[in-house]
Amino acid sequence: MKKIFILFFILSSLAGFAQNILQKPGTIDLISMFNKNQLTIVNREVKVGKEKGNDYIEFLLNEDEGLAWIEGIDFRTGIIELYLKGQDIFQHSFLGIAFHGDNDTTFEAIYFRPFQFQTTDTLRLKRAVQYISLPEYTWSKLRETQSGKFENTVMPAPDPNDWFHARFIITEKEAMVYVNNKPPPCITVPLLGAKSGKIGLYTADNSGGSFANLKIHKDN
Questions:
Q1: Is 157 helix (H, G, I), strand (E, B) or coil?
Q2: Tens digit of pLDDT for each residue in 87-118?
Q3: Beta sheet of 107-112, edge-to-edge order
Q4: Which DSSP string corresponds to 122-139?
Q5: Which residue in 67, 70, 64, 9 sits closest to 37, CA to CA?
Q6: CA geometry: angle at 181 spanning 205 and 25, to 5°?
Q7: What is the pLDDT of residue 188?
Q8: Domains of the chain by range and CATH?
């Protein structure tokens, strides 16, 4: 009887650990989730790779938005960290995170335009990081109606062809983004979208991109 009780306790503990592991701070194993079909891929071909000893997943270029929703995580507020790598190719490198998603067309996103990181064009320089809330608040609508409020420069400017670290702080009302742990935040924006809980990786139209070392710190 004692052995049965101990076994039940161990199994219960393991079940609780499995249920709560994604709610605790720590790295999300994107490669394992991809291999186990725990990423819902939308409108992209995805492959895995390794660079400098680090595993990553890569979205191949395609038209329209591409997503990889992370199954089993309901995210409302907290901190998201990861490494990203785009390209210095004009109008062909847009990558970041999607959050507060309801479905494949209704979500908020913050993404980078690496080809704007080090441009000498002062106007383009101010458009290196962008917030959107689809389907209503596209980048073009926000730029037309509230110019400069939902996009900004990234300083110090990362190498547009190399990996950079991004830290997204999501509260009930706003989002702040730090790049390579350099203060101040490169952008602080009010949130405009619904508060559903889907979270994932994001690339915009005509873009691929690479993602590694994802960490999600949920507030609850």
A1: coil
A2: 999 999 999 999 999 999 999 999 999 999 99
A3: 39-42, 66-70, 198-203, 95-101, 107-112, 129-134, 151-152
A4: HHHHTTSEEEEEETTB-H
A5: 70
A6: 85
A7: 98
A8: 24-218 (2.60.120.560)
